[in-house]
Amino acid sequence: MENLKDRIKQDGQVLPGNVLKVNSFLNHQIDSDLMYEIGQEFAKRFDNEKITRILTVESSGIAPALMVGLALHVPVVFARKQKSAILNGEVYSAKVYSYTKQVENIVGIDKKFLQADDQVLIIDDFMANGEAVKGLVEIANQAQAKVVGVGIVIEKAFQNGGQALRQAGLRVESLAQIASFTDNQVHFLGEE
Amino acid sequence: MENLKDRIKQDGQVLPGNVLKVNSFLNHQIDSDLMYEIGQEFAKRFDNEKITRILTVESSGIAPALMVGLALHVPVVFARKQKSAILNGEVYSAKVYSYTKQVENIVGIDKKFLQADDQVLIIDDFMANGEAVKGLVEIANQAQAKVVGVGIVIEKAFQNGGQALRQAGLRVESLAQIASFTDNQVHFLGEE
């Protein structure tokens, strides 16, 4: 997705430790129109999959997931990072380690919102080691739902999350795949 | 907003302690098309206000805020509930007490994403005591930005948050105002 890549080059900040900060348009401030286009792009790529539900994790996954849900007219379920006082009853849950924040969270989804006949598309804003996606796949497996694909806005392709998921047979579509941050510049896969 | 009220009556669950659970369409599972309509409705109500930025708090505020941002073609900024490892630098922040979860959070917004010439619309999914909105107003004040209005999807009008904000001179628009939960039924303001 060329306009996304252009935006990353223009506004993304490369920080020490291979951290890419895109909080001016993706995950703190959100460019609503760009996010809409992101939703349309995922919907186009997964158009033939008869998706019935979108899964993501709070908070940064919600915006892209919602725009895909809107494009496909299906509900979006976001896993919560801890049981709130309101989230009683039975939940599917999985442990997710965040390397960025260096914390382990339990993410959970109310069992009412995931069924064995669901065709699930997992959406997230970022993927590096793929921990969040693996947690959501585990949750879908608990519900015996079928994961038909994974859509990632920005994949750090030099880390092993995407490779592991693809080798496990999952279809993973990333709108921007980062090959490296050499010289504090973002280089995408397939570029010279 | 009649179809929202119908949906609350149909799918909302009244729990002990005046808790309304609407997690099947608003804040755990999200009905994408209903959320789009919610965004359109807020955009219509605040159409003349020359809004430049939408403010909300993670996580449940993100979906309605994003749909308003999309309708008005302005950026959405969501306050984060704790400083992440990535959110370094200078932030505006305020304390917000959640009665539902019985915890106090610090919510923060990177100073880059709020300017003195901003015309801010605050959006949130729920308002009871108005703690989250007050925190966002405080943050906007720190930036010397102008809060032109507050849009709430569901207001518990029998609690004092909305009244306090309106008495302080703020324009507050709520799409569904709950008068009471008598006999485990949802009763809206203005109904018999």
Q: What's the alpha carbon Rg of chain A, rounded to whole Å? A: 16 Å
Q: What is the overall shape of chain A?
A: globular
According to DSSP, the number of beta strands of chain A is: 11
* Total helical segments of chain A: 5
Strand content of chain A: 25-35%
Largest sheet of chain A: 6 strands, mixed
| Strands in their spatial order, largest beta sheet of chain A | 5-4-8-9-10-11
Low-confidence stretches of chain A: none
Largest interface: A-B, 40 and 41 residues
User: SSE order of chain A in H/E notation?
Assistant: HEEEHEHEEEEHEHEE
Helix content of chain A: 25-40%
Number of domains of chain A: 1
What structural category arises from helix and sheet content of chain A? alpha/beta
What does the oligomeric state look like here? homodimer
Q: What is the C-level CATH assignment of chain A?
A: Alpha Beta
CATH second-level architecture of chain A: 3-Layer(aba) Sandwich
Here the CATH topology of chain A equals Rossmann fold
Q: How much is the average pLDDT of chain A?
A: 94
Q: What is the CA-CA span between the terminal residues of chain A? A: 17 Å
Organism (chains A, B): Ligilactobacillus equi DPC 6820
Keywords (chains A, B): Cytoplasm, Glycosyltransferase, Purine salvage, Transferase
Binding site for xanthine (chains A, B): 20, 27, 156
Protein name (chains A, B): Xanthine phosphoribosyltransferase
Topology (SSEs and partners):
The structure is a homodimer of 192-residue chains.
Chain A: H1 2-11, E1 13-15, E2 19-21, E3 29-30, H2 32-45, E4 53-57, H3 62-72, E5 76-79, E6 91-98, E7 103-110, E8 119-127, H4 131-142, E9 146-156, H5 161-167, E10 172-180, E11 187-188
Parallel strand pairs in A: 4-5, 4-8, 8-9, 9-10
Antiparallel strand pairs in A: 1-2, 6-7, 10-11
